[in-house]
Amino acid sequence: MSPLNFFPSRTMSLYMGRMFLVRTFAILAALVLVLQALDLLSESGRILAFEGNGEAEVWRYVGLRTPEIIARFLPFSVLLGTILALSQLNQNSEVIAMKASGLSAHQVLAPLIVAALGVAALSFAFNERIVSRATATLEQWKKVDYGPLPVDRGDRSNVWVKDGDDLIVVGQIRGRGDAAQLYDISVYERSGQSLRSILTARHGVRDGEGWKVDGVQRFDVAAGKLTPLQPLRIADGVRPDQFTLSHINADGLSFTALREVIDDLTVAGRPTKALEGSLWHKLSGPLSSVLMPLLGAVAAFGIARSGKLFVRAVIGMALGFLYFVADNFALAMGNLGAYPPFLAAWAPFLLFLMIGEAVLLRTEE
Fold first, then answer.
1. pLDDT value of residue 203
2. What share of the chain in percent tops pLDDT 90?
3. How large is the average pLDDT for residues 201-225?
4. For burial by CB atoms within 10 Å, which of 9, 274, 281, 354 has the most?
5. Is the pTM of this model over 0.85?
6. One-character DSSP codes across 20-43
7. 187, 213 Cβ separation under 8 angstroms
8. SS3 49
9. Residue 239, class by beta-carbon neighbours within 10 Å (0-12 exposed, 13-18 middle, 19+ buried)?
10. Short-list 297, 334, 295, CA closest to 318
11. Under DSSP, is residue 103 helix (H, G, I), strand (E, B) or coil?
């Protein structure tokens, strides 16, 4: 059999693919509308609590939050779209007609799987270009309690590092490696748990194993005296990556950017297992859309007038819900280090691929 003969006729394939996509995106639009409204009810108070914020900031929040909701619920919408499409085909005896023409269960599902593959590719591109940027911007906006936010140029802000007993707080970091530059620096100089003085500086650059800072002042806590100082060197032994890689939000980074961060952390000798799991999940997450037609296929087979069509649809939804539960559980175990990163991201997908195949073969007749 040639690969082209694996599909139903061109007309039937387009009919099934269009039915599947229309229902999938209609369900997604309804879910996004309801969930965004509920989310906005809980956050609008905080947004408007900042003086000067108004309707524009509320709409800005909606624009930043909506891509996250779309990315999270797209696979679930694919599952429901599959169940609705296949249930209608089954109820109208169209599945019976296709099987009577000699098509197997996999051939019946082939147009839906190809359409779901296109949805997965679209989902990956959407996550890379839009969701990661919106998530990173929203996270920074929340840190300033929905106040004015500087233009995002990939800089890091509000980072603290411990240097012995001292705490170093940096308002903003620009650049990476030895080219990193620090701004709005505060060094809380302590003896044990007692604060001796607070050193502040406007700007700092890498200087050998430490950092040379200028615009320096030191406040002596015991004397209550503020003293201007000449440029000096601080934080010997504090590496640039301790500032630039102190907080990594995997959801706010694209696949390529996250892979670069993991490489930097590996060179610095820091743990990367949780981030590696998130990296793999950036592939397995969108690809889960391809799995949904297989899990929802239980609604397609069996005689509709037997009265069990609703039960079959519920079984399909239950399989989809179980997949999402298993996926989140595996990711949590990967973050704790109990599962290897690859297993945490791909084990649920492979497990439910086999379960879907088994259920399909069992319920086909």
1. 92
2. 44
3. 90
4. 281
5. no
6. HHHHHHHHHHHHHHHHHHHHHHHH
7. no
8. helix
9. middle
10. 295
11. coil
Q: Are 248 and 276 in contact (CB under 8 A)?
A: no
198 contact partners, CB below 8 Å, separation of at least 6: 186, 187, 188, 189, 218, 219, 221
What per-residue confidence (pLDDT) applies to 267? 65
Beta strands in the chain (DSSP E): 156-163, 166-174, 181-191, 194-207, 210-214, 216-220, 225-229, 232-234
Q: How many helices (H) and strands (E) does the chain have?
A: 10, 8
Task: Give CA–CA dist 25/122, Å, rounded.
Answer: 12
Tokens of 282: 């950036």
The amino acid at 305: R
Q: What is the DSSP letter of 154?
A: S
197-207 pLDDT, tens digit per residue, is 999 999 999 98
User: Biggest alpha carbon distance in the chain?
Assistant: 93
Per-residue pLDDT at 365 exceeds 60: no
- Cβ contacts of 6 within 8 Å, gap of 6 or more: 106, 107, 110
Higher per-residue pLDDT: 250 or 177: 250
Average pLDDT for 148-162: 65
Is beta strand 210-214 parallel, antiparallel or unpaired with respect to 156-163? unpaired
Cβ atoms within 10 Å of 45's Cβ, excluding its own: 8
Measured CA to CA, the distance from residue 211 to residue 238 in angstroms comes to 8
Residues 169 and 186: beta-carbon distance below 8 Å: yes
Identify the bridge partners of residue 219 per DSSP, sorted by sequence position.
198, 226
Of 99-113, 117-131, 142-156, 183-197, minimum mean pLDDT range: 142-156
| Nearest-angstrom CA–CA distance, 204 and 232 | 10
